[in-house]
Amino acid sequence: MTPPTAAAPEAVRQPLIPPSSHRYADVIHRLEAGGSMLPDTPENLMQIIGIYKAYAVPMDFYWRDLLYIAEQVFLDPLPAFKYFISQEYLDLPNSYAGDQSKLRIWRGGEKAHPELLEFMARGETGRMPKLLHHLWHDRINMEFAEACMQAMLWHQGMGGRFYDYLETDTYRANADRAIKAYFRVNPLMLGLYRLFPEMFMEQVKKLSYTANLGLFWEVMAPVFFEMSDIYDEGGFKGVPDAMNFLVNGIFAVAGRPIYHHVYIRGECFEIIPKSEGFTWLYEAALPYVEAVFYRTAPFRGTKSYNAQACQVPADQADFHYGILYADVFPVGSAGIPPTLLMQDMLHFLPPYLEDLYRQHKRGDADKLIQLGITFQRSMYNVTSAVIQALRCALLYPLDDTDPEHLMANRRFFEAQMDRFLRPEARLPQIQTQDYR
Amino acid sequence: MGPTPLLLLLALPLAGTLLLPLMPAEVPPARLRSIAAVPGGLQLLVALLCWRHPPADLQLPWLPRLGLSLDLGLDGLSLPLVLLSALLTTLAVLSAPADQGRPRLFFALMLATNLGVVASFLAANALLFLLAFELVLIPLTLLVAIWGGERRAGAGVRYLLYGSVSGLALLAAVLAFAWLNPAGPAFGFDALRAAQIPPAAQRWILALLLLAFGLKLPVVPLHGWQPFTYGQAPTPVVMLLAGVVAKLGAYGLLRFGVGFLPDAWAAWSPWLAAAGAVSAVYGALNALAQSDIRRLMAFSSLGHMGLLVLALAAATPLSLQGAIAQMLAHGLISALLFACVGLIERKTGTTAIRKLSGLMNPLRGLPFTMGMLLLALMAAAGIPGLAGFPAELMVFEGSWTSFPRATLVSLLASGVTAVYAIRLFNRVGFGRLDNDRADWAHTRWSERVPALALTLLVIGAGLWPTALTGWSETESAGLALRAQPFLNDPATIQIASATTLSASEPLPS
After folding, report:
1. Which of A117, B80, B218, B266 is at 20 to 30 A from A80, Cα to Cα?
2. For position B22, what pLDDT does the model report?
3. How far apart are CA B124 and CA B127, in angstroms?
4. Exposure of A88 by Cβ count < 10 A (0-12 exposed, 13-18 middle, 19+ buried)?
5. How many CB atoms lie within 10 A of CB A259?
6. Which residues of B touch A303 (CB under 8 A)?
7. Which chain B residues are Cβ-neighbours of A333 within 8 angstroms?
8. Distance between CA atoms of B364 and A365, rounded to whole angstroms?
9. pLDDT tens-digit map of B142-158
């Protein structure tokens, strides 16, 4: 009798290249098979989709308020009410949602998300004047969004032509026109502008990055809403499906123009006109991922960083304080100010994620940390999508039969994984479900 | 009121000790813990009743041929310590884990310890005191040796050895009291107080008493057992050890040394004050160097016992009142410290300072426990508004007139408490808490109750210091009068009166 193992010999496809000897060889092989850095488990899928939804609702506010600040508040010397978004911007139609959109990503409406509007009205504390909600931090924390913008501004040279353009005469001339128009009836500020022109120019650059990030997130919010809806309908079968949705989305909107317009007394000033040809993928998405996911800056907490003792790298490219490296404990932790974002997401968790958190660790008491770690997992998935998109754009298909091409892909993946060799990286932790 | 409450104070823990081992095996440990807390709780109520309605002394012959009788009494020295014992026994029992191993024996031995301690405080007969004093040693040794840490056997043996020497020394002292009494052998406290023992004999007896009670307190250089035992004993046991049993040594010095041997005490008091100051400095400096929270607390306790010895050595009315206040305050504070440390150890599995950090983290740390620990550390450092402040203030103020240099040294040593307290809290409470280690459950309210009750008492005693000092004004003044020979000298009294009179008269123009 023939043993069962030999009964039905299948044509096993031999790998065209030898296995990787990298420390993260398993992850690299998964990426080469079209997977994500995040293991494909039902719980991981549930966690990342749930948190995308919880992230998308505050993000729907972030992008609207960022554009409001960049286009309307502009150089207001006392911008105390810059987070008090106008109704016009709250109703601003999203370019990728609603019936009016040319490329409809989310099947929902184009105005602010209903859950966002409900939260803005009541907050955690109940109905009271907007100013009290603001002072009590019972609101969407725009400080997080601004910290991300500042990270993009500060790290600068991360690919794309955006920052270089901010140094050109054209940009300076456009900014100069806008500054003079804005302070036309304010001789004091005009006088200050004459004395310290670079200070004003720096502020306008910051506002250009504010517009950049606002336009970036205008795309991401409907992407995440749509992913949540698809998951609720049972659409995604695994983590790679979710990642591929992101990859496809990246390519679909890659050419979306990035610009900076300012509206002063009804007149539009094009500080960065659309005609410059800046695109979403190269001038917004890639710099954002690099600045926010990888680098950012060591934030002040109960743990201090001593730059003189070389605890902060001298080279900005070596910064490793982003969410992919962050210790998400909200006190004294590294990375983007996680406390504020986690607080924002806490208000919009889907019920299945609330149930999951209740079953682990301290349940409701440490939900903030559990959702922070979920967010970290989800951002590893987004980063995987960006890595796959870059591989797709710059290198070869995964099913290529040329070993040379596959080796080129391998080198690319290994180079990406090298960034997670430092001990702070959380890539090893997210490989298991125990990390919560 | 009749003497029945005195018998009740002993009968309650005795009944608990005898009945708990007979409980059915199916009773869960948590239920047994609740049952075991009942005798202590009732004892506390009876003691409070005795405070409102002082009971009559009890005298029952036991072994008349040996001079042993069941002489029990309560006065301003013993009542607050009985209250403290009852309270801390109850809270120590409640601070045991819900899944306490071998609970019947454990809680029975805890109550047996309480029986020995309370009997010591109630005893009005030296032989009875000796028996009760010795009784404490057996259950505590078993508690440490059976339920202690990794090196529990060594800790138990060391405690037993030191305790045995202490007991032998006390036995020798008690026998010497009887044999060297010119009026004939007697063990009753009244007889000992009235005994005209020659000065040379007094010094021999005092030397034995200092050995016996100095080991119990402990005080440098008799402290060899303390850090090791405190480090290995389970949390409820160390709460009793530091909070109550150590006070037995101070009580013995006060009752026997200051009370019965005033001449020898006065003669040796400069050396005792020096020993107190050395203990305070030694304890504080060692606490600074520790890398384990339990050992740090042990040395901190040693330092604070040094202050107690200083106050006893000075033996002024204020310092003795301060000594009693310090006994009570230190009992509450040290029990609170160890209760908090016990919670930290139960959750994190360690008391090693280098392994702990970020416990103040509001979400994954132990913020409530750390808050109570911070308060206890502040109280130990003598921060105003907490129990440690009035006690230490009275100790220093009362001792200054007699031993200014020793007081100054002790004051500086006391200041070091704040240093190691801040150092400990900074390392354990702040800093980074990462996911690799921070995987423990939060403390439940049932676990917090003992420490919370102690916290409220520490705050209450700080805001209302009479709770610490109001028990013993009469007794401490009487003891001070006996221990300060110059106060009994008519000439001194005349000079003092004349000084007072002249001060009240108008100055000559």
Report:
1. A117
2. 94
3. 9
4. exposed
5. 18
6. 431-432
7. 432
8. 8
9. 999 999 999 999 999 99
Neighbour-count burial of A210, counting CB atoms closer than 10 A to its CB (0-12 exposed, 13-18 middle, 19+ buried): buried
Which residue out of B428, B435, B443 would a mutagenesis test of the A interface target, given it has the greatest number of A Cβ atoms within 10 Å?
B435
Taking only the tens place, the pLDDT of each residue in B434-467 is 667 778 888 999 999 999 999 999 999 999 988 8
Is B240:B305 a contact under the CB 8 Å cutoff?
no
Q: Is A295 exposed, middle or buried (0-12, 13-18, 19+ CB in 10 A)?
A: buried
Q: ipTM value, please give it.
A: 0.71
Report the residue from A303, A329, A365 with minimal CB separation from B442.
Answer: A365
The per-residue pLDDT for range A231-278, each reduced to its tens digit, is 999 999 999 999 999 999 999 999 999 999 999 999 999 999 999 999
Distances (CA, A) of B458 to A34, B328, B427, B470: 63, 10, 24, 16
pTM of the model: 0.82
At A261, is the secondary structure helix, strand, or coil? strand
The chain-wide mean pLDDT, for chain B, equals 89
- Element (DSSP H or E) covering residue A310: none
Q: Map residue A301 onto helix, strand or coil.
A: coil
Whether the per-residue pLDDT at B416 is higher than 90: the answer is yes
Look up residue A156 and give its amino acid: Q
Between CA A223 and CA B202 the distance in angstroms is 92
- The CA-to-CA distance between both ends of chain A, in Å, stands at 50
Q: Write the DSSP symbol of residue A316.
A: G
The pLDDT of residue B463 is 94
Q: Do A303 and B431 touch (CB under 8 A)?
A: yes
Would you state the pLDDT for residue B9? 95
- Residue A66 CB partners (closer than 8 Å, separation 6+): A145, A149, A210, A211, A213, A214, A217
A330 touches chain B (CB under 8 A): yes
Helix (H) or strand (E) holding A57: helix A42-68
Give the residue among A184, A230, A179, A176 at the shortest CA–CA distance from A74. Answer: A179
Cβ contact, residue pair B431, A330, below 8 Å: no
Residue spans of alpha helices (H) in B290-316: 293-314
Stated as kind and residue range, the H or E segment containing B72 is strand B68-72
Q: Counting Cβ atoms within 10 Å, is residue A424 exposed (0-12), middle (13-18) or buried (19+)? A: middle
CA proximity to B187, closest of B129, B132, B135: B129
Q: Does B410 score more than 50 pLDDT?
A: yes
- Residue found under tokens 């024996």: B105
Rg from Cα positions in chain B: 23
Confidence of residue B302 (pLDDT cuts 50, 70, 90): very high
Supply φ then ψ for residue B383, to 5 degrees.
-70, 130
Q: Hey, is B71 helix, strand or coil?
A: strand
CA distance A426 to chain B (A): 11
3-state secondary structure of B408: helix
Would you kindly state where each structural domain of chain A is located, as residue ranges? 38-154+216-261+281-430
Q: What is the pLDDT of residue A117?
A: 95
Does residue B96 have a pLDDT over 60? yes
Element (H, E) at A327: none
User: What confidence tens digit (pLDDT) does each residue in B305-316 have?
Assistant: 999 999 999 999
What pLDDT was estimated at residue B212? Answer: 96
CA B296 – CA B284 distance, rounded (Å): 9
Tokens of B198: 């020659």
CB contact under 8 A, B362 and A369: no
Integer-rounded Cα Rg, in Å, for chain A is 23
Residue predicted with more confidence, A333 or A395: A395
Q: Taking Cα atoms as reference points, which of A411, A377, A419, A376 lies closest to residue A391? A: A411
CA neighbours closer than 13 Å in the CB half-sphere of residue B298: 24
Give CA–CA dist B492/A41, Å, rounded.
91
